[in-house]
Structure formats: C-alpha cells, structure tokens
From TrEMBL:
It comes from Caldisalinibacter kiritimatiensis. The keyword Cytoplasm applies. Pfam families: Methyltrans_RNA, PUA_4. GO terms for molecular function: rRNA (uridine-N3-)-methyltransferase activity. NCBIfam families: PRK11713.1-5, RsmE family RNA methyltransferase. It is found in: Cytoplasm. Its EC number is 2.1.1.193. One of its GO terms (biological process) is rRNA base methylation. This is Ribosomal RNA small subunit methyltransferase E. Residues 20-65 form the Ribosomal RNA small subunit methyltransferase E PUA-like domain. It catalyses: uridine(1498) in 16S rRNA + S-adenosyl-L-methionine = N(3)-methyluridine(1498) in 16S rRNA + S-adenosyl-L-homocysteine + H(+).
Length: 248
C-alpha cells in the first residue's frame, strides 16, 4: 500500500487532506483514484489507513478507515553528528542512516573538513535539499517520523551541545583497545549520540576534547572505513544490539 506523510493540520476528525507535490505523484504517476486506499503518516508515529474520497487539482481528500501507531520506529533514539564530507557523500549518508532508523542528523565543521559553507543562504539551501532526501528515505522505509537535518554546527558548538548527554560514541581509527560491541554491552539506555569525523578523520586535539566531556572513543574493527560508511555501520550495530534490527 502506498504511503505518504501529511502535516498534522491537514488531519481533521475523520478526514485527511494531501497537498503539495504528492498530489501530482498520486494522480499522474501512481494513477490512484477515488476509493483507492493509502497509508498516511502524521510525522509523529501515527498511521492512518485511508480511502481517497475526492481528488482536486491542488488537494486530495481521504476518509480515515483506521488509525494505528507506527511500528517502524526503533526503541532507541540516535543522533548522528557527521563531519561534513565532500560532494554527494552527505546525500548517501542521510539516505542510508534514515533507512536504518536515525532520529536526527547534524552536519559538523571540524578541523579537517574540506567543504566550507560560506554564507547562511547557501547553508539553508543545502539543508532544505538534505531534508527532502530524508523525507524520501523515510517514506521508502516506512518510517513514522521524518528525521530532522539540523543546522550546520562548528565542532565547539557540537561539544557544547552533547557535553551533558548520557552516552556519546566516537568511532576513531586509532583506537585499538575498546570495540563498539564491548561498550554497547554496558549500556541499556534509549538515546545515543554518534560523532563521525570527515575525510581525514578527527584531529587529535578534537578527540581529546571529546574524551574530556566523557564521550566513548571506540574502534569499528581492524579495517579503516570511509566517513560515508562509518555512520551507518555504527547505526546498524547499535540497532542490532539495542534496537530492533533483526526483530520480527
């Protein structure tokens, strides 16, 4: 059954209204019509099975048949702080991390970040595009929310943001004592921060600052992973150990 996100203000009693780009997609691409059934999500983990009752040029009216809680959201909340990579790598990171169950992704400027965003207008355009990628991935993977893409942070802003959080993980290529699996065995909480460096990894001074606020520096194994691989690899392991990956 086809699935779409709707804003909460477009849900009125037993009616749900689809607006925007999805109207054209439903009518011109999917060629759905009156009496066809769809699943609509309010972005807050509520699903509505609904029947199309009316189609207009700029909106589609649906009649709610059943309301249920989304069963696709994991029991653990994961926020990914991603060192900003070059070119289209961020697109891939967002797509795959959303599919795996990330809650929020925050781009971070570090010492070794190659990409520089020079003005606020350019930053907002990038974030808007990344948010669209998140929405598309959330729709495809039947998520109950659309994970937020946060504003770009400096490394120092990130440190300030996570210093009081309970559990932050930092995969680091020079760590050879503590593995990710080892540290996860000691944690049974419901929120995890993941901090990933850009191409070239973290500067040693940055790793020391992360250690100082209590972040756990961990190894992902004997092979060095690219920045675009490290994030969703870490999320997959966390979802297996603490979440619902592999659960039927």
């Amino acid at each position: 059954m086809h699935r779409f996100f709707v804003d909460k203000e477009n849900i009125k009693e037993n009616k749900v209204f689809i607006v925007g780009e999805d109207v054209k997609h439903i009518t011109k691409v999917l060629r759905l019509g009156v009496d066809d059934t769809v699943v609509l999500c309010d972005k807050e983990k509520n699903d509505f099975t609904a029947k199309i009752s009316r189609i207009e040029k700029d909106y589609i009216e649906c009649e709610v048949l059943k309301k249920t809680k989304s069963n696709s959201e994991p029991p653990v909340e994961i926020v990914l702080y991603q060192g900003l990579p070059k070119s289209a790598k961020m697109d891939l990171i967002i797509q795959k991390c959303v599919e795996l169950g990330v809650t929020k992704i925050v781009p971070v400027l570090t010492t070794r970040t190659v990409v520089k965003i020079k003005n606020t207008n350019k930053e907002q355009k990038k974030i808007s595009r990344w948010q669209k990628i998140s929405e598309q991935a959330a729709k495809q993977s039947r998520r109950g929310i659309i994970p937020e893409i946060g504003n770009v942070m400096t490394f120092e802003e990130m440190i300030s943001n996570i210093k009081n959080d309970e559990f932050s993980l930092v995969p680091y290529e020079d760590e050879n004592r503590i593995g990710l699996k080892d540290i996860l065995k000691k944690y049974n909480g419901k929120r995890v921060n993941i901090v990933i460096g850009p191409e070239g990894g973290f500067d040693e001074s940055e790793v020391n600052k992360l250690k100082k606020i209590g972040a756990h520096i961990v190894s992902l194994g004997p092979r060095i992973l690219r920045t675009e691989t490290a994030g969703f690899t870490t999320i997959a392991v966390i979802m297996y150990e603490l979440g619902d990956l592999g659960v039927i």
